[in-house]
Write a structure and sequence with these properties.
Blueprint: H1 5-15, H2 22-38, H3 56-60, H4 77-82, H5 89-105, E1 110-115, E2 118-123, H6 128-135, H7 145-157, E3 160-161, H8 162-169, H9 174-182, E4 186-191, E5 199-203, H10 205-211, H11 227-238, H12 254-271
Antiparallel strand pairs: 1-2, 3-5, 4-5
């Protein structure tokens, strides 16, 4: 049987207890070759070859191996030779993309998703209820709008302090932060170099999985939460100015206003 990377990756995905990364796959390939080098081959008479795996000196001294070594059948030698010594990240990603497309095209009950730490086989969302029933789990609790707003501010401004979050939102962020910490969506990054050394918050890998992205670079651009826009808003709020005509929607020039007044005069005289 020739080596088939796609079938091997499918087996690894099925057997993995967590996300399967490129490093995990490459480590498994290295272990494969290490174990293959230690296996003796069967010759035509069905006896193990002394050139691979046997130790005549140890046998003469009466030392037996701790565990019996099972020789590798000669017909499997071709399979072992077909396994490359190195599988690149590009090859792995290409095959993973193929598997993902095949599952979606077949409308499979499982999907292949890539997260921040690797690939995982997951159940299709339309079958989530049955999984919860099997595990006797309650339905997931939705985040409140307050928690979502707090999480958005942290995602775009991290590392950020609680005081900065509250200044941006204009309300207390204590309840939202508590909920996000409980659900492992944010964590304490450290302390800011400010008076009082306030705690700074950032997002976790669980947050990336929650929103369905692989890295923070994939967050959609936001003019509202960008550092430039927020800094300008904070500066304006710290130094308020008197409202002008443009702020009140009165942007007409004097010439335009005079024209409007003149056009209204005939109507007034006619009505009188």
């Amino acid at each position: 049987m020739a080596f088939d990377l796609k079938r091997v990756l499918k087996v690894m995905l099925f057997a993995s207890n967590g996300p399967l990364s490129v490093k995990d796959i490459q480590t498994a390939v290295s272990r494969f070759h290490e174990s293959a080098m230690a296996l003796p081959l069967l010759d035509e008479q069905g006896e193990g070859s002394k050139e691979q795996g046997s130790n005549p000196e140890a046998t003469a001294a009466g030392i037996e191996p701790a565990e019996p070594v099972i020789p590798m059948p000669a017909e499997d030698e071709e399979f072992y030779r077909d396994v490359p010594t190195l599988i690149t990240a590009a090859q792995i990603r290409e095959v993973m993309d193929t598997i993902s497309l095949e599952l979606r095209a077949a409308d499979s009950e499982t999907l292949l998703i890539e997260g921040a730490t690797g690939w995982r086989l997951v159940t299709h969302p339309r079958f989530a209820r049955w999984v919860r029933l099997l595990r006797n789990e309650p339905p997931p609790v939705r985040l409140s709008p307050s928690s979502l707003e707090t999480m958005a501010v942290i995602a775009y401004r991290q590392p950020v302090t609680r005081a900065a979050i509250e200044q941006i939102r204009g309300v207390s962020a204590e309840a939202g932060l508590t909920k996000l910490l409980e659900r492992d969506l944010v964590y304490i990054v450290g302390r800011a170099d400010l008076p009082g050394r306030p705690i700074q918050y950032g997002t976790t890998d669980t947050f990336l999985e929650f929103v369905g992205i692989k890295s923070l670079d994939e967050l959609p651009s936001s003019d509202v939460l960008s550092p430039r826009q927020i800094d300008a808003w904070l500066q304006t709020s710290a130094n308020p100015r008197a409202a002008g005509d443009s702020d009140m929607g009165l942007e007409e020039t004097e010439e335009q206003q005079m024209t409007l007044q003149q056009s209204a005069l005939p109507e007034t005289s006619a009505s009188s």
